[in-house]
């Protein structure tokens, strides 16, 4: 399994912002990208997560343990 596959990523529509926002709560607080298209938001989010993990590993950092579970924690992560 690739390191990025361990982290939950999701895209959610924001009525307030009128766009889709991408989240990866185990690596970032809040949204990290946005777009008017759901698919492009998810594509960008995946690239951001891959880059972040590569950057942390290159610096010798330990990656955080994934904690967010899709069935329980998503509403808490966005709130």
List the topology elements.
Elements: E1 10-14, E2 19-23, E3 33-35, H1 38-58, H2 74-78
Antiparallel strand pairs: 1-2, 2-3
Quick structural summary:
The protein has 79 residues and is α+β, with helices and mostly antiparallel strands. Helix content is 33%, strand content 16%.
Q: Which key features would you list for this structure?
A:
Double Stranded RNA Binding Domain, single chain, 33% helix, 2 helices
Structural commentary:
The protein is built from two helices and three strands. The protein is an alpha+beta fold and 79 residues long. It has a single domain, classed as Double Stranded RNA Binding Domain (2-Layer Sandwich). Strands 1-2-3 form a three-stranded antiparallel sheet, covered by helices on one side. The protein is elongated and about 40 Å long.
Cα-to-Cα separation, first versus last residue: 30 Å
Tell me, what's the shape?
elongated
Question: What is the strand arrangement across the widest sheet?
Answer: 1-2-3
User: The CATH topology is what?
Assistant: Double Stranded RNA Binding Domain
CATH top level assignment? Alpha Beta
Strand content: 15-25%
Average of per-residue pLDDT values: 90
Number of domains: 1
| Corresponding CATH architecture | 2-Layer Sandwich
Order of helices and strands: EEEHH
Question: How many helices?
Answer: 2
Helix content: 25-40%
């Amino acid at each position: 399994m690739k390191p990025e596959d361990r982290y939950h990523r999701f895209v959610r529509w924001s009525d307030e912002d009128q766009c889709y926002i991408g989240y990866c709560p185990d690596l970032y607080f809040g949204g990290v990208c946005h777009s008017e298209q759901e698919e492009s938001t998810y594509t960008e989010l995946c690239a951001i997560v891959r880059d972040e993990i590569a950057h942390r590993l290159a610096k010798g950092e330990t990656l955080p343990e994934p904690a967010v579970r899709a069935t329980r924690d998503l509403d808490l992560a966005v709130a």
